[in-house]
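Record 1 of the preview.
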Amino acid sequence: MTFSLPVNRRVFCGAAGLGALALTSGVSRQAVGSASSSRDPFRGLKVGLASYSTRKFSLDETLSMMKDLQIQYVTLKDFHLKMDSSVEERKAAAQKVKDAGCRMMGAGVVYLKNDEKQVRNAFEYCRDAGMPVMVSAPDLDALPLVDKMVKEFDIKVAIHNHGPGDKRYPSPLDAYRLAQDYDKRIGCCIDIGHSVRIGDNEVDVIHAVKDRLYDFHIKDVTERNAKGGTVAVGRGVIDIPGVLKALLEVGFDGHLALEYEANADNPMPGMIESYAYIRGVLAAL
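->
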């Protein structure tokens, strides 16, 4: 029998890795159960990890966690591959990711100054490690230089919004507006947690920037304001079913990266719950 659960509850269904069920009026136990027979529980979305989530752990440990989580896509933060690394170190890290059965989706967040040496090194870093996208928060006066490097290296730059307190890109809409003056390969990485904390509607913002949406940080927060803190996906106020439905609707083909910022010393329980919730929602949509 199909029945909907109350919207303000969360149910953890551990069997077959289905995990947390999206408890909205459109999500039922029966629909979630169908995920066990799905070949791709993420329905074509490249669901993976922003390695800031595992910042207290090594690259080897991060890849081991990814194996346990049954995900293959990763964006590396410089905790796991230093920006001042050598070409050989970058290539070795890329090989390690590949040997683990994973796929390098990008770097970031990378902070860029209006300094040609620093910006060039960042693009060389991505090139050497085979990263197609740089998730970045460039200084405003660095944007013309970033535009120049994008054309030279053919690497996309996804500008990351940081919500309240960010004077440059509080919302993805700010990043999108500024990107219009530059090469099409300069676009957005929506951090949906920060976006909601600044007052954006999480569904509308995806549709608004869809033609320059190159990366996405999925998370959940406790409040729709500056006080909102990070929690496991499905435990907060963000309309995760709406977010995932919108990403499917716009045909998003970039990295849908979990950035789980809570409990840096032991992120696995929260990450397990988050991915399980995402799987459950996608099974039910």
